Amino acid sequence: AQSVTQPDIHITVSEGASLELRCNYSYGATPYLFWYVQSPGQGLQLLLKYFSGDTLVQGIKGFEAEFKRSQSSFNLRKPSVHWSDAAEYFCAVVDDKLIFGTGTRLQVFP
Amino acid sequence: ETGVTQTPRHLVMGMTNKKSLKCEQHLGHNAMYWYKQSAKKPLELMFVYNFKEQTENNSVPSRFSPECPNSSHLFLHLHTLQPEDSALYLCASSQEDVGTNEKLFFGSGTQLSVL
Question: What does the buried/exposed string (b/e) look like for A28-61 if buried means 16 or more CB atoms within 10 Å of the residue's CB?
């Protein structure tokens, strides 16, 4: 069965620091990959997605992610974190349905 | 505002109660979903409706009963729930079934507590 692993449950960074959230997937063919963000008390919002083509994908709010087939990874990055980025981040892969990871909670210190 | 509205935002119910969660989308989408979000667990897909027809029931107990009267509305009827059913229930919609890799739009969820 396809799966998604987010190794980091909780990450804390200082405002202005760079960020990388890890995501590893298990999928036989070329995966369709997503990153969603969930702010407190809210539903999930799509940040970016990868289907094919350029392996570096740009998303909303200054986020980007890079698909690396050799590492089965789709890590999310942001060069400079803002306090408003504090939220929970979910990586997901499409099989015949959307499969989510367990999420990474991001805390941002001023 | 994502275009997907869920009511109520919070719900507390006893194990013998009957209640319903409501979801409405104003996006003209054809597929709607119920997800369960529990602490420290991945989001669990419960049900999928595509063009008002149920296309996925992910081994959900019968105490959860979905209803999709039209493409814009989705309900989740609850009865004789257990405390372990306490969770955030998220509704989502997409233009078509996610099997076509469509983007999902989520509501803010209903935080359910079963006493």
Answer: eeebbbbbbbbeeebbbbbbbbbeeeeeebebee
State how far residue A110 is from chain B, nearest Cα, in angstroms.
26
Reported as a single tens digit per residue, the pLDDT across A54-63 is 899 999 999 9
- With CB atoms and an 8 Å threshold, state whether B106 touches A44: yes
Which residues make Cβ contacts (< 8 Å) with residue A95, sequence separation at least 6?
A: A1, A2, A27
Query: Any alpha helices (H) in chain A, and if so which ranges?
Result: none
pLDDT digits (tens, 9 = 90+) for B47-96: 999 888 888 888 899 999 999 999 999 999 999 999 999 999 999 999 87
Which of A44, A51, A94 to probe by mutation at the B interface, max B CB count within 10 Å? A44
For residue B24, give how far its alpha carbon lies from the nearest alpha carbon of chain A (Å). 14
